[in-house]
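ugh ok fine here u go
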Amino acid sequence: MLRYAITNRRQYGTGWREQRAGLIGQAARLAAEGIDYLQLREKDLSAQDLIGLAREILSAIRQSRSGTRMLVNARADVAIAAGADGVHLPSGEDELTPAQIRSLFEAAGHGRPTVSVACHTLSDVASCSEADLILFGPVFGKTVDGELAVAGVGLDALRRACAIAGETPVLALGGITAANRATTIAVGAAGIAAIRLFR
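structure:
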């Protein structure tokens, strides 16, 4: 089962220093546990702060020698500048394609990046054949401040997404817990993606 953690610095307090230390500590712990992927998702940081944070997280990950790969949410420029392993592409028509991300990495003299893509519908999945990983959901719903904000698409939709994706691994996203993660694997998911589960 692939495990894909997504960061949220607000889980670690309100001050930047505290949040930064929390994220670096989280990365070191998860890498030591052998997690497969860590997505740096701090979308509101400046490019300069994001690059600095990404480099520190990468340093913590690489000290573990575990093979954990770090992807940067949406920012190919930051991923390249920091030396990250790839990019996560949110859903949306104005986003770059996986092929474009790979061209940017190649032009910068980097190796082939890992590209994950967020998909929320089955038609999204059908158009993601170039992706290395598909994050599909929210399977069990999305909560904001402890309240259900978006209803889950359910396990049947996840099963169909996995069938449509073919050989591209699909990771279940949205409301994933220790109690329900096995059910996502049972319907065909290659793994799970989560924020709170990997806190």
